[in-house]
Design goal:
By secondary structure, the protein is α/β, with parallel strands linked by helices. It has one domain (about 5-245): P-loop containing nucleotide triphosphate hydrolases (Rossmann fold, 3-Layer(aba) Sandwich). Helices cover about 50% and strands about 10% of the residues. The chain has eleven helices and four strands. The protein has helices at about 15-25, 35, 50-60, 65-80, 100-105, 120-125, 150-170, 180-185, 190-200, 205-210, 225-245, and strands spanning about 5-10, 90-95, 110-115, 175-180. It has a four-stranded parallel β-sheet with strand order 2-1-3-4, sandwiched between helices. It is globular and about 55 Å long. The chain starts with 6 loop residues before the first strand and ends with a helix.
């Protein structure tokens, strides 16, 4: 009998999702056969081709019902291939899972979701991903699409994370948890314990798993940018910075 309650990890790109899947994998959650599922130098599930094909039309709301059903079948087939044995806790991560959370929930009604949040100011400033994010415009108003990339990025960060939070809270209930990346870095033991407990991993592995966490120098990098670049980003993101506890 299959365990159809995967633990799925997602968040904004470059938000630190990798360490979360490493921790639960260390604690005994089956995160796929490495040679099949992992990208080089990354813990991402190797579903990049599916994400590239389906996420853009999904977030821009251009899929009809038949196409959305085809999307779900494609993901279901790939996940059956990558996770043939699912009798114990299992899970995967890719940042873009956050953007297709309703689809994943339809596939796995009992799924758990770990929603990783990182300070939107650090996501928007000093992040190479800003110039290559193909989903920005789906979260912008018409008059916002000519803004500088870093300002568009914080709007995307705020709105996409708020959408995921609202869906997770309403649809998943206690099978949804939001965890701030900075909290994991600063309180590694207690946050690791919380994560492993949520994922159904082996709790005694928490201490050793917490040693996987490294605090990078990039925390707070936004403050080093000149005010003329930094201040408009902070102003545009203030609603969501407050919502997620970044004051």
């Amino acid at each position: 009998m299959y365990n159809e309650q995967p633990v799925i990890v997602g968040g904004s790109g470059h938000s630190g999702t990798r360490i979360f899947i490493e921790i639960i994998g260390h604690a005994g959650v089956f995160c796929g056969i490495r040679s099949l599922t992992k990208r080089k130098h990354s813990e991402d599930l190797r579903i990049i081709d599916l994400l590239n094909r389906w996420v853009t039309p999904f977030v821009f709301n251009t899929l009809d019902g038949q196409q959305e059903a085809a999307m779900m079948r494609a993901f279901a087939r790939r996940l059956r291939l990558y996770f043939p044995l699912r009798r114990k806790p299992w899970g995967f991560k890719n940042p873009r899972c956050m953007l297709i959370l309703p689809v994943l929930h339809q596939l796995f009604p009992e799924m758990k979701f770990v929603h990783v949040i990182r300070d939107g100011r650090d996501i928007s400033l000093g992040n190479a991903f800003v110039s290559s994010n193909r989903y920005l415009d789906a979260f912008l108003e018409d008059d916002e699409r000519s803004l500088p990339p870093e300002q568009k990025m914080i709007l995307f960060w705020g709105r996409s994370n708020q959408r995921a939070m609202e869906y997770g809270t309403a649809a998943l209930g206690d099978r949804y948890t939001m965890m701030r990346w900075e909290d994991l870095c600063l309180k590694s033991i207690s946050m690791t314990e919380k994560l492993i407990r949520f994922a159904g991993g082996v709790q005694s592995a928490a201490l050793s798993a917490s040693r996987l966490v490294e605090r990078p120098d990039s925390i707070g990098r936004w403050a080093d940018f000149p005010p003329e670049v930094r201040d408009p980003v902070v102003a545009r993101g203030q609603l969501w910075l407050s919502l997620f506890g970044y004051e």
